[in-house]
Write a structure and sequence with these properties.
The complex is a heterotrimer. Chain A is about 40% helix and about 20% strand. Chain A contains 10 helices and 10 strands. By secondary structure, chain B is α/β, with parallel strands linked by helices. Chain B has a single domain, classed as Pyruvate-ferredoxin oxidoreductase, PFOR, domain III (Pyruvate-ferredoxin Oxidoreductase, domain 3), CATH 3.40.920. Helices cover about 40% and strands about 20% of the residues of chain B. Chain B is built from 6 helices and 7 strands; from the N terminus they run βαβββαββααααβ. Chain B has helices at about 15-30, 75-85, 115-125, 130-140, 145-155, 160-175, and strands at about 5-10, 35-40, 50-55, 70-75, 90-95, 110-115, 185. Chain B starts with a strand and ends with a strand. Chain C has helices at about 10-25, 35-50, 60-70, 85-100, 125-130, 145-165, 175-180, 245-260, 265, 290-300, 320-325, 340-350, 370-379; strands at about 5-10, 25-30, 55, 75-80, 105-110, 140, 165-175, 180-185, 230, 270-275, 280-285, 305-310, 315, 330-335, 355-360. Chain C folds into 2 domains: about 5-190, 3-Layer(aba) Sandwich (Rossmann fold); about 270-379, Rossmann fold, CATH 3.40.50. Chain C is globular, with a radius of gyration of 21 Å. In chain C, helix 6 links the parallel strand 6 and strand 7 (about 165-175). The chains are: A alpha/beta, B alpha/beta, C alpha/beta. At the A-C interface, strand 2, helix 2, helix 4 and helix 10 of A face strand 2, helix 2, helix 3, helix 4 and strand 9 of C. Strand 2 of chain B pairs antiparallel with strand 8 (about 180-185) of chain C, so a sheet runs across the interface.
Chain lengths: ~260, ~190, ~375
C-alpha cells in the first residue's frame, strides 16, 4: 500500500507494534475505532482496516471521547504525534487523562513536526536545531509520561522503535487497561530531526535509542538519577481507578432511579 | 385585556425574577392570557441590580420588553431612582417602604407598603418579601386573578414552603385591601 | 407547571432542549457560556433520563469534536454555545461539513466581538454562521423569533442535519433564549422525526460512506456496525480516503454544497404580512422581528403602506423569496442588531432594483418598535 512516510521513518514500526498488539489482545476489528489528529503519524489510521477517524489538529482525543461516550462498548484507540498531542492538543490530553476514560493513546513521538518539515515541538530537547530553531531550541521539553501521569492517566508506558517487542507488550497492556492508557513511543525522523541535528540515518538513531534507554526496573534500582540524555522505558505507572464510562453508567442508573421515584 | 406592562426591580437576591416568572405563569398557564417574561441582571450571582419584566395581554405579544411600565414595583432605592421616570402616566407604583423612600410622579397610583417588614412579621423571614409584593401587586391591579396567582405560587416555590408562601401572598393582598394605619397609603 | 391544554411558560433555551429531545437527541457535549448555559444544565438532567450521554468538555473545541465523534458512533448529537465559543467551534464545524457528519450547533448570540457583553443580545453572528469556518462549505441556519418557534425549529435542525448529513446551526439570541413565553408543546407522536439513511448493503458488500450512488447524499453507517470505513477532514474521493485528484476534490466540494443548494426551496422558510401594495417593506429576523412587527402595525395605523417580511431561514439565504415579496416596494428597511450583515444579502437579492436602508443597533438593548417606526417614516 502506498503511504506518506519517508524512508527510515519510525512510524511504520510503531504502527506495526500497534497492529500486533491489537492482534495479540484479540480486539474485534468491527468493534474497534482508531482516531487520529493531524501529522505524519495521524495518517496511520488510513492504512488500517477498522473504523477510522482522521480528525483536526490536536483534537483526536476530543472526537474519541465523543465516540466512546456514545458507544462505550467500542474499543477506542488514539494515535497522535508529539506536536499534535503535547502542543495543540495538550488540553485534550490532560483532560482525557483526568477523566480516566478508556481510550488507549499511542504517541508517535519523533520530537518534531515532520509533516510541515521539521519545526521544534514540545518534545524537542533544549539546544537541538529545527527549522524554526536555527540558533538552537531554547524551549524545555515535556516529559510526556510524567505529564500524563500527573494529569491522571492510570496506565503510562514508554517504548521505542528499537525496542519493538517491548512496545508491542506495552501497547497490548494499554489496550487491556480499563482507563486512560498512555504509551509514548520514541520514533525516529531521520529526514528532518535527524538530519538537522546530525544524528545520522535511521539505523544510527535507533542505535541511540538502544544505547540510551534504561529499563524502568534497572533505573529504579539504581541509587543514582538517570544521567542527562538517558530515559526510562517500560511500564512506568499503573493503578486501578474508576473508569469514566463506567461512572457514567452510574449516572444513568441514578437518573432512572430518580425518575422511578418521581 | 389590553397589553399591561409590569416591571419588578430591586437587588439581586430579592427573588424578583422568580416573582416575574410566577406572575407570568399565573397569567399564561392559569388565567389563559398571553404572557412574556424577560429579565436583566448584572454579572454578579448575588447582589447588584436585578430587573424582571412581565407583559400580559389577551392579544399576541410582539415586542417583549417593557419601556413604559403600567405597573412598577420597586424594592430598592437604586431601582426606584433608576426607573421611576419610566412609569406610564397614571400608572401604578408599588414601593417597598422597608427599603425605599418613594417620590411618585403626579397622577400615579401609589402604594407605599413595608413589604419586607410584612414578610418578616408574617413568615419570620425577609426572603418572602417578593411573594408579599406579588400579593400586593395583584390586589392593587387585578392584573391576574387571585386563584391564578395562588396556583402559580404554589407550583413554583420549593416543596415544603407552599403554606408559608401562600401566607406571605395573602398578607400582601390584605395590606392593600385593608391598609393598616401608616403602612399602606393609596394616594 | 403545565396548565389546561398543555400550556406552559418556558424559556427559549428550555424550548430548544425540548425540541432536541423530541427530535431524538442522545448526545450533548458543551462548555459553560452565557447566555446558552441553561441548555447544557437542562440536558445534564434530561439526557441521562432517556439513556443519552451528556458531557461537559474541557473547552469549546473539544465539545464540537466530541459531537462529531458521537454522531459517527450513531447518535443524534448537539452542542450549544455563544459568540466566543461559536468562534472556537468553527474548526470542527468545518470538519463536520466536509466529512458530512450530521450535528446541530446552537449559538445563543450575545454582543461581540471578543468577550463583548455576555448577558446582552445581538445578532452579530449571522455572517459567522455562514462563513465562520474556512473554505467553501454548505451552511444551513435557522433563526426563531419566539419560544414556541424555538421548539419547532430545533426539531427542523435535527431533521435537516440527519437528512442532508451536514451540520445545521440554530441562531438564537439572548432575548429569545432567555425570554419566557407561553407555549403548547405538541405530543411526541405529532413531531415528525427524520433519521439518517443507513447503508442498504450489509457489511463487506461495497459500502462507502462517501459514494452517493444515484443520489447526492451517501448513507451513513455507524462506527461499530461492521462497515469499517474511513472519515477524514482531508479532501477525499468516493472511497472516503484522501485524494489529491483535482477532479475528485472538485466533485466532493461541489456535491456537499449542491446538496443544500438543490433543496433550497424546501429549506427556506419565510413569512410575510401586508407586503402587497406596500411602499415600505421591513425585512427582519429573530428577536428584531418582534419590534419590527409592531412597528409595521404602527406605520399602517399612521397611514403608511408598510409590510413585513420575516426570515426564518437565514442560510441558504432565501433570495428568491425576498425578491418576490419585496417586488412592489419602493423602499426596503432592514433592522438588525449589528452594524450591517443580512442587509447585504437583501441588497444582493433585489440586485439594485429597490433602495435598501439599514437600521443597525448595537450596545446590547433590543430595538424598540418606535425606533423602527421612525425609520419606516424616514425611508
Amino acid at each position: 500500500m502506498p503511504h506518506i512516510w519517508c524512508a527510515g521513518c519510525g512510524h511504520g514500526i510503531v504502527m506495526g507494534c500497534l497492529i500486533r498488539a491489537i492482534d495479540r489482545v484479540g480486539l474485534d476489528k468491527n468493534r474497534t475505532v482508531i482516531v487520529s489528529g493531524i501529522g505524519c503519524s495521524s495518517r496511520a489510521p488510513g492504512y488500517m482496516d477498522f473504523d477510522t477517524l482522521h480528525t483536526t489538529h490536536g483534537r483526536a482525543l476530543a472526537f474519541a471521547t465523543g465516540v466512546k461516550m456514545a458507544n462505550p462498548s467500542l474499543n477506542v484507540i488514539v494515535i497522535a504525534g508529539d506536536g499534535d498531542l503535547a502542543a495543540i492538543g495538550g488540553n485534550h490530553l490532560i483532560h482525557a487523562a483526568r477523566r480516566n476514560i478508556r481510550i488507549a493513546t499511542v504517541c508517535f513521538d519523533n520530537s518534531t513536526y515532520g509533516m510541515t518539515s521539521g519545526q521544534y515541538s514540545p518534545m524537542t530537547p533544549t539546544g537541538k536545531f529545527a527549522s524554526t530553531a536555527p540558533y538552537g531550541n531554547i524551549d524545555r521539553p515535556f516529559d510526556l509520561c510524567e505529564l500524563a501521569k500527573g494529569a491522571g492517566a492510570t496506565y503510562v508506558a514508554r517504548g521505542t522503535t528499537y525496542h519493538a517487542s517491548l512496545t508491542v507488550n506495552l501497547i497490548a497492556k494499554a489496550l487491556e487497561h480499563n482507563g486512560f492508557a498512555f504509551v509514548d513511543v520514541l520514533s525516529q525522523c531521520p529526514t528532518y530531526y535527524g538530519r538537522r541535528n546530525k544524528l545520522g540515518g535511521a539505523v544510527e538513531m535507533m542505535k541511540w535509542y538502544k544505547d540510551n534507554a534504561v529499563p524502568v526496573q534497572a533505573a529504579r534500582q539504581s541509587p543514582e538519577p538517570l544521567p542527562p540524555g538517558r530515559f526510562m522505558i517500560g511500564e512506568l505507572f499503573t493503578v486501578t481507578a474508576p473508569e469514566y464510562t463506567d461512572e457514567y453508567a452510574g449516572v444513568l442508573e441514578r437518573a432512572r432511579e430518580r425518575e422511578t421515584r418521581a | 385585556m389590553k397589553r399591561t406592562e409590569i416591571r419588578l426591580a430591586g437587588e439581586g437576591g430579592q427573588g424578583l425574577i422568580l416573582a416575574g416568572i410566577i406572575l407570568a405563569e399565573a397569567a399564561a398557564v392559569y388565567d389563559g392570557a398571553n404572557a412574556v417574561q424577560t429579565q436583566s441582571y448584572g454579572p454578579e450571582s448575588r447582589g447588584g441590580a436585578s430587573k424582571a419584566e412581565v407583559i400580559i395581554s389577551e392579544d399576541e405579544i410582539d415586542y417583549p420588553k417593557v419601556n413604559r411600565p403600567d405597573i412598577l414595583l420597586v424594592m430598592s432605592q437604586l431601582a426606584h431612582d433608576k426607573y421611576i421616570g419610566d412609569l406610564r402616566p397614571g400608572g401604578t407604583l408599588i414601593a417597598d417602604t422597608s427599603n425605599v423612600t418613594p417620590r411618585a410622579p403626579e397622577g400615579a397610583r401609589v402604594f407605599e407598603l413595608p413589604l419586607t417588614d410584612i414578610s418578616v412579621n408574617t413568615t419570620g423571614r425577609a426572603i418572602a418579601a417578593n411573594i408579599v409584593a406579588l400579593g400586593a401587586l395583584v390586589a392593587a391591579t387585578g392584573v391576574v386573578s387571585k386563584d391564578a396567582i395562588e396556583k402559580a405560587v404554589a407550583a413554583r416555590v420549593p416543596a415544603g414552603t407552599v403554606e408559608v408562601n401562600l401566607r406571605a401572598l395573602n398578607a400582601g393582598m390584605e395590606v392593600v385591601r385593608r391598609p393598616a394605619t401608616g403602612s399602606g397609603d393609596a394616594h | 407547571m403545565v396548565g389546561a391544554g398543555g400550556v406552559r411558560l418556558m424559556q427559549g433555551n428550555e424550548a430548544c432542549v425540548e425540541g432536541a429531545l423530541a427530535a431524538g437527541l442522545r448526545f450533548f457535549a458543551g462548555y459553560p457560556i452565557t447566555p446558552s448555559t441553561e441548555i447544557a444544565e437542562l440536558l445534564a438532567e434530561r439526557l441521562p433520563q432517556v439513556g443519552g450521554a451528556f458531557i461537559q468538555m474541557e473547552d469549546e473545541l473539544a465539545s464540537m469534536g466530541a459531537v462529531v465523534g458521537a454522531s459517527l458512533a450513531g447518535l443524534k448529537a448537539m452542542t450549544a454555545t455563544s459568540g466566543p465559543g461559536f468562534s472556537l467551534k468553527q474548526e470542527n464545524i468545518g470538519f463536520a461539513a466536509l466529512a458530512e457528519v450530521p450535528c446541530v450547533i446552537v449559538d445563543v448570540q450575545r454582543v461581540g466581538p471578543s468577550t463583548g457583553m455576555p448577558t446582552s443580545p445581538a445578532q452579530g453572528d449571522v455572517m459567522q454562521a455562514r462563513w465562520g469556518t474556512h473554505g467553501d462549505h454548505p451552511t444551513v441556519a435557522f433563526t426563531p423569533w419566539s419560544v414556541s418557534e424555538t421548539f419547532s425549529l430545533t426539531v427542523t435542525c435535527f431533521n435537516v442535519a440527519e437528512e442532508l448529513r451536514t451540520p445545521v446551526i440554530l441562531l438564537l439570541d439572548e432575548v429569545i433564549g432567555h425570554m419566557r413565553e407561553k407555549v403548547v408543546l405538541p405530543p411526541p407522536e405529532a413531531v415528525t422525526v427524520v433519521d439518517r439513511k443507513k447503508p442498504a448493503v450489509p457489511p463487506g458488500e461495497g459500502y462507502s460512506a462517501y459514494d452517493p450512488g444515484d443520489g447526492d447524499i451517501p448513507p451513513l453507517a455507524a462506527f461499530g456496525d461492521g462497515y469499517r470505513f474511513h472519515v477524514t477532514g482531508l479532501l477525499h474521493d468516493r472511497s472516503g480516503f484522501p485524494t489529491n485528484d483535482p477532479e475528485e476534490a472538485a466533485y466532493l466540494l461541489n456535491r456537499i454544497c449542491e446538496k443544500v443548494e438543490r433543496r433550497r426551496a424546501r429549506l427556506t422558510m419565510i413569512e410575510s404580512r401586508d407586503v402587497h401594495g406596500a411602499d415600505v417593506v421591513v425585512v427582519a429576523y429573530g428577536c428584531t422581528a418582534r419590534p419590527a412587527s409592531r412597528a409595521v402595525r404602527m406605520a399602517r395605523e399612521a397611514g403608511i403602506r408598510a409590510g413585513l417580511v420575516r426570515l426564518i431561514t437565514l442560510w441558504p439565504f432565501p433570495r428568491e423569496d425576498v425578491a418576490r415579496l419585496t417586488a412592489g416596494a419602493r423602499r426596503i428597511l432592514v433592522p438588525e442588531m449589528n452594524l450591517g450583515q443580512i442587509v447585504h444579502e437583501v441588497e444582493s437579492a433585489v440586485a439594485g432594483r429597490i433602495p435598501v436602508v439599514h437600521l443597525g443597533k448595537v450596545g446590547g438593548v433590543l430595538m424598540t418598535p418606535e425606533e423602527i417606526f421612525e425609520a419606516v417614516k424616514g425611508v
